[in-house]
Amino acid sequence: MTIDVPKHADELRRTARAMVADGKGILAIDESLGSCEKRFKSIGVKSTEETRRQYRQLLLTTPGIEEYVSGPILFDETIRQKTDDGKPFVKVIQDKGQIPGIKVDMGAHPLAGSPSEKVTEGLDGLRERIEEYRSMGARFAKWRAVITIGDGIPTRQCYEANAHSMARYAALCQEGGLVPIVEPEVLIDGDHDIDTCEAVTKEIHHELFAQLYRHHVWLPGTILKTSMVISGKECPQRAGVEEVAERTVQTLLGTVPAALAGVVFLSGGQSPEESTAHLNAMNRKYRGKLPWPLTFSYARAIQEPALKHWKGDPNNVKQAQKLVYQRAKFNGLAALGQYNKEMEQQAA
Ligand code: 13P
Prior knowledge:
This protein has 348 residues and is of the alpha/beta class. It has one domain (9-347): TIM Barrel (Alpha-Beta Barrel), CATH 3.20.20. The chain has 13 helices and 10 strands. An 8-stranded parallel barrel has the order 1-2-3-6-7-8-9-10, surrounded by 6 helices. Strands 4-5 form a two-stranded antiparallel sheet. The mean pLDDT is 97. 1,3-dihydroxyacetonephosphate binds next to helix 11.
């Protein structure tokens, strides 16, 4: 027997639409302990449960963030944490009218048989974890797969292993009443050109949607989070904003079924300004003309200026929150195609 429409279909569709509502996107704050360690080290702050709590509190309680952010993606530790005055983070999010999300994968690990590539783990016990997260208030989930471009890679093995796991994760999410975000990230690291990035992005999208189909994942209750089609960071001749926007949209049109609820982008190591400009260029030209909304699900591109300003000092919280709000606003405008560069100068 196959399942065409999941039990929670109405709710899944409603949640997925709200996640990508007009002028809104998602704030990723689901960094693993290792990633937090790295980010905090860059500002001279020791990463502890308490400093992570303080930092996530800063982000989540940013005044007005709900105008541009439909919901945050939390980490397992974060979904259990509370504000200084004892209010659960989940309640803070709900009181702002936002939707709590949760990262449920267990990270990317070396792929046996092709150890320079990675496969994301986390399927064991996932049904039970989804049940727990839903009972805590989560309504969507995220699973990130990493595709590395390099000598002789990515391999078929890597595309297939990651797409298969993502499809099983997505099916479990829908069974348990969470909207799955499926995130195949083609890494920006390396000197490859934009053609290579385009070819690899197409390949992983085709494999992913074939697997989602095979596992009866219901697309109106699913969100794709993907990387843009962009030149490698060390590529000697990097494509400009218009080309990145055009190639990304054309790649999506050629690989992503129209029934999908929405497409969101990760920033993947682009600067905050670059990430906003690319999203804006896509929406300025194509908004309302594509089968799905295109918006953001950035971590670094929203957090970076605030993290640098914060430096772990409670006296810096207010100003850091203004910086979070500013990036969220610019990206919200970019989701409407209404951002422009002059706004950066005015804000500065
Ligand atoms: P970046 O925007 O920093 O790439 O992070 C997005 C994300 O959630 C990666 O999984």
